[in-house]
């Protein structure tokens, strides 16, 4: 297999766009939510993100080449890798912003620096959790039905990727629908444009042109000329963050998010194997953890992850080179200050059809890679992530209505208004917390019930009870402008899972086999 193929260019456009969106979110949230000064953002945070992206992308590209040599195949696709979107928001709104507000209330001289240091310790701890998790992840993967692993990814892809970008597609239909048509034509229709032009490049190029013609571009504030930046380790700030009490203060967020990253990466490795590329679990997860540690040591407050989407990039024809290109692209835009120029000139609408297509492929894979009779297990595994996305929309609506400010924080006062419209928002908030755990448990329970392995189904139900009792899922609390996991027992949910487990243990004696349909 060659290092670069024509399909790598297509894959690069999609993966680079995805990473670009995360970097733009970092830029906007750090500047406008945290009030981070340019020297900290462009001198430490973005260079640290560049180092973490470069380390992981180069490793996974080399890993793909090694697998290709070992198997004699030429269609091996590297694991996609980037900054974790869920952790990005969690670190900003559940760790860094509260740390800043607490520092301001205490009269600290530089509350933004304290907030940054809180993000550093959370990122470092996340990397350590992933490193430790690498030692046991393969056992978890072998014990978990494929439907449970893939359906959870499908729910994330359907809600947080596909539906979100579908809204944006129909908000700007000329750009959105046209570029979606290009992507569907080339990737689902398996055709190529004359002259050898990659479909992804055509979609982004024509999308950018239409964006300028229709007024979508230029977009946002004028670019910031940050200049060339050299990555410098911030060991002093990391040590200060470890001794400043942030680790203990935000442990209730750090532990669930770290475990979330481990399981999410594990599911993406399973997705890659279902698509034909079997990578070793331990080294893949370990380097993912190393990437987060490198991020913290060089100043980024945001952990990395093995990305969702391997089947989509593979279907595009991406191999190893797209990963190298992505790492190089992220490094250049983070170190040269060109990030804001790209955001100004090329709106997300120009390339979002590629990411939407990736979400469709991942959702379809969950049904295609499991036995037909396990399709209901895939559906039930999808629901928690879609429900979590619905909870996110509800909270966005509250923020749009003016809530989520120090004067009007989120509180239980909103609950009766939701319930009056038959929207059981407390159930949505409970489902949102730790949905990756509950999705796996519910899907695995369903797989084992379909196979009439009731004792194994009961064990998964008891696993859900244990996760609830430990506070890893379903327990929630209001914060200033969000809801967060409450690392305390969610006893009602634990009781519900436990009762289901007892039912399943008794099923052998209280039921008789019926006809299979």
The global form is globular
Subunit arrangement of the protein: single chain
* Number of helices in the DSSP assignment: 22
Rounded Rg: 23 Å
* Spatial strand sequence of the major β-sheet: 1-2
Would you report the number of β strands? 4
Total tally of structural domains: 2
Q: What string gives the helices and strands in order?
A: HHEHHHHHHHHHHEHHHHHHHHHEEH
Beginning-to-end CA distance, first to last residue: 45 Å
Salient structural properties:
517 residues, mainly alpha, 2 domains, two-stranded antiparallel ribbon, two-stranded antiparallel sheet, 22 helices, 4 strands
Short summary of the structure?
The protein is built from 22 helices and 4 strands.
Explained architecture:
The protein has 517 residues and is mostly helical. The protein folds into 2 domains: 303 residues, no CATH class; 138 residues, no CATH class. Strands 1-2 form a two-stranded antiparallel sheet. The protein has a two-stranded antiparallel ribbon with strand order 3-4. β3 and β4 form a beta hairpin. α1 crosses α8, α4 crosses α11 and α6 packs antiparallel against α16. It is globular and about 70 Å long. The relative contact order is 0.17.
């Amino acid at each position: 297999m060659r290092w670069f193929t024509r399909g790598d260019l297509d894959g690069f456009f999609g993966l680079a766009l995805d990473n670009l969106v995360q970097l733009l979110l970092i830029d906007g949230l750090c500047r406008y939510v945290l009030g981070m000064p340019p020297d900290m953002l462009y001198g430490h945070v973005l260079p640290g993100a560049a180092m973490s992206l470069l380390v992981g992308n180069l490793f996974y590209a080399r890993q793909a080449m090694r697998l290709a040599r070992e198997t004699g195949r030429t269609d091996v696709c590297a694991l996609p890798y980037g900054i974790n979107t869920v952790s990005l928001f969690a670190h900003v709104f559940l760790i860094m912003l509260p740390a800043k507000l607490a520092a301001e209330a205490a009269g600290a001289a530089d509350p933004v620096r304290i907030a940054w240091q809180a993000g550093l310790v959370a990122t470092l701890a996340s990397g350590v959790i992933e490193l430790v998790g690498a030692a046991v992840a393969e056992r978890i993967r072998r014990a978990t039905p494929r439907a449970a692993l893939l359906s959870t990814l499908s729910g994330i892809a359907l809600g947080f990727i596909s539906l979100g970008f579908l809204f944006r597609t129909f908000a700007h239909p000329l750009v959105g629908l046209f570029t979606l048509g290009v992507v569907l034509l080339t990737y689902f229709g398996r055709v190529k444009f004359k002259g050898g032009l990659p479909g992804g490049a055509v979609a982004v190029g024509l999308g950018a042109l239409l964006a300028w013609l229709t007024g979508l571009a230029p977009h946002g504030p004028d670019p910031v000329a940050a200049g060339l930046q050299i990555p410098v380790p911030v060991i002093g700030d990391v040590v200060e963050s470890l001794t400043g009490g942030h680790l203990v203060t935000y442990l209730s967020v750090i532990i669930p998010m770290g475990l979330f990253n481990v399981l999410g990466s594990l599911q993406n490795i399973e997705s890659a194997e279902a698509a034909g590329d079997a990578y070793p679990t331990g080294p893949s997860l370990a380097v993912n953890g190393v990437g987060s540690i490198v991020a913290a040591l060089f100043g980024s407050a945001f952990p990395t992850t093995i990305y969702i989407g391997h089947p989509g990039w593979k279907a595009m024809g991406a191999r190893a080179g797209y990963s190298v290109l992505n790492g190089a692209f992220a490094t250049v835009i983070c170190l040269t200050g060109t990030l804001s120029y790209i955001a100004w000139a090329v709106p997300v609408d120009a390339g979002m059809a590629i990411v939407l297509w990736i979400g469709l492929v991942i959702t379809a894979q969950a049904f295609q890679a499991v036995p037909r009779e396990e399709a209901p297990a895939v559906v039930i595994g999808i629901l928690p992530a879609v429900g979590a996305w619905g909870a996110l929309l509800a909270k966005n609506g509250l923020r749009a209505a003016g809530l989520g400010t120090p004067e009007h924080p989120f509180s239980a006062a909103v609950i009766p208004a939701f319930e009056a419209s038959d929207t059981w928002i407390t159930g949505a908030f409970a489902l949102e917390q730790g949905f990756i755990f509950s999705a796996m448990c519910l899907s695995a329970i369903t797989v084992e019930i379909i196979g009439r392995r009731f004792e194994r189904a009961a064990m998964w139900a008891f696993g859900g009870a244990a996760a609830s009792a430990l506070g890893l899922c379903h327990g929630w609390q209001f914060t200033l402008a969000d809801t967060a996991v409450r690392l305390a027992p969610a006893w009602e949910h634990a009781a519900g899972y436990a009762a289901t487990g007892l039912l399943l243990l008794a099923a052998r004696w209280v039921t008789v086999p019926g006809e299979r349909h």
